[in-house]
């Protein structure tokens, strides 16, 4: 589909400026001077930005199982979520699929996670409007899942790989009480069950070091981008850097995030944290990291629509330029994921574009994937 989008506010070359965006065969052919093209869809003062690139979202879990025990077919759940992503301006999604301890989730859980990943890849080829990729998350004591993850990596079914450690007493869960507060209701555990699981995890940590190293090296051999999760110490950052990790998700305090960046590791936080002004789990505010220049990108975590609201919140509450705020959900995550074909409005890039009406509460009114509308809430049909 060939078309021209015109606006007095286009995010290109690092600035919001007037421009005509020329689209041909799914790519941006050129960013031309404002009103230089004879025929164009004039969007007035509506903001045109690159499509959002989301490196970590758990939203697929709630789409498959919106209430405990109420499971929906995975393929139809993915189609419905895909529609929501288009309305949120997300054109590249990495679904974060967790491989957790069998002691918590049951031994079938590894097979279920693998099945979800295969369903995502199948749907992405045939059914979905935006790019739906896989971010596999490995819990460090989920030893039974290592072989399954390796097979998925070998089959090119995984696109990002991260490691996480939810052992109580460190990381996200500083105390056993906090660990139980989260896990008992989510996994329907009794207090005695929880105590046994905690003992299992603590015993398994001595073995986890070698397993994590093995899996991360396997991922690196297959050219995957490697991430860590909930980092809470300089020692952990140093160790993960040695293993090839290049991104730290949700570092637990400002000092650790600053140290990670000094070591050449990028840092990312949740967009909902920015919008709400605090962490849902009681950890550090993403706004604090942004103020200290210790947050490179934002991901939706569990709330896709926050990818639109977070840049405006950061601009309003912190005073960052709107250009810098949108970089955190577009060009920076694209670059960190090795997706050099998207994330910017410039010649040669894929025409993944989002049009935003932001006179009041910002809302997406048009989303283009490879130049074609996948969500359209305007009179602009772009190609009719």
From TrEMBL:
One Pfam family this sequence matches: Amidohydro_1
Annotated Amidohydrolase-related domain residues: 261-371
Entry keyword Hydrolase: yes
Entry keyword annotation includes DNA-binding: no
GO molecular function, one term: hydrolase activity, acting on carbon-nitrogen (but not peptide) bonds
Keyword field: Hydrolase
Top-level taxon in the UniProt lineage: Bacteria
GO biological process, one term: organic phosphonate catabolic process
Listed name of the protein: Metal-dependent hydrolase involved in phosphonate metabolism
Lineage: Bacteria, Pseudomonadati, Thermodesulfobacteriota, Desulfobulbia, Desulfobulbales
